[in-house]
Amino acid sequence: MHGIRRRQEREPTQDELQQAKQRVDRYRALNSHIMDLKAKSVFTKDSLDATKRLLEQNTELHTVWNYRRTIFTSLDEWQSQDARQQMLDGELKFLLDIITKNIKSYWMWNHRMWALSSLPRPEWQRELALVAKLLALDARNYHGWDYRRFVVAQLKDAATDKHAVDIQEFAFTTEQINHDCANHSAWHNRSKLLPEILAQRDEDGQLQALQAENDLILNAIYTDPDDQNAWLYYDWLLDIQKSDADRCRLLRNKIAMIRELLELEEDSKRPLIELVSAYAELERLQSGSVLETEKKECLETLRRLEGIDPYRVGRYTDMSRTLSKQWALAA
Amino acid sequence: MTETFATDAKLLVDKHVEFIQNLDKKQDRLEYWMTEHLRVSGIYWGLVALFLLRRPHALDHEQIISYVLSCQNADGGFGGHTNHDSHLLYTMSSVQILAMLNALDRVDGLRVTKYVLSLQTKSPMTTVCGDKWGEHDTRFAFIALAILSFFNTQDQLDVNGVVEYVRGAMNYDGGFGSKPGGESHAAQVYTSVAALALAGRLDIVDRDRLSSWLAERQLPCGGLNGRPQKLEDVCYAWWVGSALDILQRRHWIQANKLANFVLSAQDEKGGIADRPGDVADVYHTCFGIAGLALVRYPGLEEVDPVYCMPRSVVERLGLDKWQSNVPESWSQQQAY
Predict the structure, then answer these.
(1) Which whole number is the average pLDDT over B52-59?
(2) What is the pLDDT of residues A47-59, one digit of tens each?
(3) Potential cystine with B126: which of A70, A87, B161, B270 (Cβ 3.0-4.6 Å)?
C-alpha cells in the first residue's frame, strides 16, 4: 500500500460495522463463486460476466485474469474472426474504464497486451494515441512507457518502412523534451532510439545527428545544471563517439562549459563533480593531458564537495583516494 | 567497522512483532480479503521481519509450512494462495519461507525446478517468464536463478542467455530497467544486480556509474527514492541498500540519516509505512527492517543482500557462495 495517510480513527458505529461486514461477505461470496466455476472449468458468458464484476473491484487478481482469458478462448465465438474482434474491442473498452482504478497494475497491462495480440485487426495507431494521452497526464508513468515501447514494436513489426517508425518515435521524444527537458523517461527512450537512427545514416548524417543531440542536451544542462540525468546523457553521448580523439575534444568542451556554469554559481554540486570526472576521464584517455594544477584542483574540489554534499561523502573520499593514487599525488 | 547510530527514535520491536502476529486476525477488513492473492508473499515479508528482529518463533512454523505446501499446484509452481494459479513471484516467496523454516525437504526440488524451467523462453529473446502467460522482466530472471540455487539446479537453466537479457536491460545511467528498453528503477536494479551476482557476472555492471546513481537516491530527508524526481519511500532502503551492499558501496549513502527516516515512518501502534504519517503495512515493515539490517542497525540479524533472508539461513544452505563471484578489484577499494 502506498501513500495512504493515517487518520485518527474513532470506534465504528454498529451501522458501519454492519455495512463493512456486508461488503466483505459480498466480495468473498463473488470470489468463492468464481474460484468454484474455475475449478469446474466453466467457460460461459455467465462466468465471463462474473469475472468482470470481481475484477472491477480488484484489478490485482491475476488468477481471475488468467481464468477470464481462458474463458474467452474457450467460447465458440472465439473461432469467428468477426466475433473475436467484437469481444476483444469490448475488452479494451472495459480495461479503459478501469484503468484509473489502478494505473500501475501489471496484471491489467498484461491483459491489455494479450487482448491486442489476439485481435484479428488491432489498431496500433489508436493504442499509440491512447498511451500518448496517458503520458500527457503522467509523463513519468513507468507502465505507460513500457506499454508504448510494446506498441511501437508491434507497429514496427507490421510496417514496411520500419525506420520510419523509429523516426516517428524519436520525434515523439523530442516533443516531450521540448515540453519539459527534465522528462527523464523521454530521454531514456531517446537513448534507445538514437543508435537506430544513427545506424541508418551515412557518416555526415551521423555527425549532424550527434551535433544536434549535443545541442539538445546542453540546452537541458543550462536549463537546470542540477539535473543529474542530463549530465548522464551527456556522458553517454561521449561514450558513443567514434574515437578517443572525439571524446577528448568533447571533454574539453564539457570542462569549458562547466567553468562557465561555475562562474554563475561556484558551489554548484553537479558541475563540480562533473568537472572532476571530466578531468579523470581525460587523463585516462590521454595520459599526461591533464596539468598538475588541474589535478590538484580536482582533489581540492572533492574536498569542497564533502562539505557541499555531505550525504555523498563516502563517494568523494573514495574518489580522492583513487585519483591521488592514480596521479601519485597526496590526497 | 561498526556503524554508530545517533538516531532520534527507537525501533519498536515488540510493536512490530505484535503487528505481524495480528495480520491474520484482520478478517473483518475488506483489505484482508482483497490481498488474499498474495498471502504467501505477505507471510514471507512478515517472517523476514520477525527473523531479523530476532523473534523467529512469533508465528507458528508448522501452520505456515502446511499452508505454503497447500499453495503448490500440479504444475509444480506455487500460487499466492491455495488454488491460485502458479507464478514465479509466489513460488519464490514459498521457497524462501520453507528455507527459513528449515523445511525445504518438504518439497520436491525437481518438481519446482521443472516448473521454473518450463517458463524459460527463447522468443522474443532468451529469458524467463513470470508464468505461462508470457510476461518477462528482470525480476523473473533473478527469481529463476534464485529458486534454482535453493535446489542446486541452476545449471539446467540457460544462464548465459538470462545474463544477456539482464545486460540488455542496462541503461546509460548504469541502472537497469524491467526489461531491455525499460527505464532504470531501483527495484529492477536490485533484481538485475542480484541476478548477475548469482550468475557470477557482476563484471557486466558499470560499478562506478551505478553506485553513484544509487547514492543519488538519498534525499535531504534521509529517505531514498526509486528513480530521480520521485518521492522517498521506506522500501527503497532495501532495493537501493541491497544493490549498494552487493556493489560494496554501502558507505556512499548516510546510514544514520536513512535509519532515522525509516524509524520515523513507524506507526507507534506497530508496523512501518512507506513514509511518515502513512498507514503501515507488512511489505514496508519487511523492507524497512531489512534496510535497517543492511546498515547494521543494532539488535538486528544480518541480512543477505541477494536473497533478502537472514544471513544465517543463507549460510546454512551454502548459498553464500555468490560472494566469491564479486570481482576481486571491488574489495580492494574498501573505505575502511
Answers:
(1) 98
(2) 999 999 999 999 9
(3) B161
* Distances, alpha carbon A128 to alpha carbons A125, A156, B285, in Å: 5, 12, 39
Whether A58 has its CB under 8 Å from any CB of chain B: the answer is: yes
Q: Mean pLDDT throughout B211-220?
A: 98
Distance separating alpha carbons of residues A29 and A18, to the nearest angstrom: 16
- Does the distance separating the beta carbons of B211 and A315 come in below 8 Å? yes
Residues of A in contact with B257 (CB under 8 A): 311
- Cell reading at B13: 520491536
Look at A142 and B183 and tell me if their CB atoms are within 8 Å.
yes
Q: How would you label A192-213 residue by residue, b for 16+ Cβ within 10 Å and e otherwise? A: bbbebbeeeeeeeebeebbeeb
Share of chain B above pLDDT 90, in %: 93
Q: Do B79 and A318 touch (CB under 8 A)?
A: no
The yes-or-no verdict on residue B336 having pLDDT over 50 is no
Quick check: B8 pLDDT over 90? no
- Tell if the CB–CB gap between A106 and B182 is shorter than 8 Å: no
- Residue A229 at interface with chain B, using a CB cutoff of 8 Å: yes
CA A34 to chain centre: 36
* Contact: A62, B85; criterion CB under 8 Å: yes
Alpha carbon distance B258, B253 (integer Å): 8
pLDDT at residue number A1: 67
Cβ distance B257 to A311 less than 8 Å, yes or no, reads: yes
**pLDDT at B43 (0 to 100):** 98
Q: How far is A38 from chain B (nearest CA, A)?
A: 10
Backbone phi and psi for residue B272, each to the nearest 5 degrees, phi listed first? -120, 140
State whether A322 and B36 contact (CB < 8 Å): no
pLDDT value at B2 more than 60? no
User: Which of B181, B233, B335 has the CB atom closest to A192's CB atom?
Assistant: B181
Residue A156 clears pLDDT 90, i.e. is over it = yes
Reduced to 3 states (helix: H, G, I; strand: E, B; else coil), residue B228 is: coil
For chain B positions 209-228, those within 8 Å of chain A (CB to CB) are 209, 211-213, 215-216, 218, 220, 227-228
Residue type, B226: G
pLDDT surpasses 60 at B3 = no
Neighbours of B30 (CB within 10 A): 17
Q: Give me the torsion for CA of A126, A127, A133, A138, rounded to 10°.
A: -170
Q: What is the pLDDT of residues B236-294, one digit of tens each?
A: 999 999 999 999 999 999 999 999 999 999 999 999 999 999 999 999 999 999 999 99
3-state secondary structure of A15: helix
Task: Indicate the average pLDDT of chain A.
Answer: 94
Q: Which of B205, B285, B216, B218 is nearest to B246 (CA)?
A: B205
Residue B4's pLDDT is what? 61
CB proximity list for A285: less than 8 A, separation 6 or greater: A244, A247, A248, A251
* Predicted complex: ipTM over 0.90: yes
pTM for this structure? Answer: 0.96
By the CB < 8 Å criterion, does B83 face chain A?
Answer: yes
- Which helix (H) or strand (E) segment holds residue A43: the answer is none
User: Is B333 within 8 Å of A318 when comparing Cβ atoms?
Assistant: yes
Q: What is the pLDDT of residue B332?
A: 64
Confidence of residue B123 (pLDDT cuts 50, 70, 90): confident
Which residues from chain A sit within 8 angstroms of residue B172, using beta carbons?
Answer: 188, 191, 232-233, 235-236, 239
C-alpha of A81 from chain center: 35
Q: Is A60 on the interface with B (CB under 8 A)?
A: yes
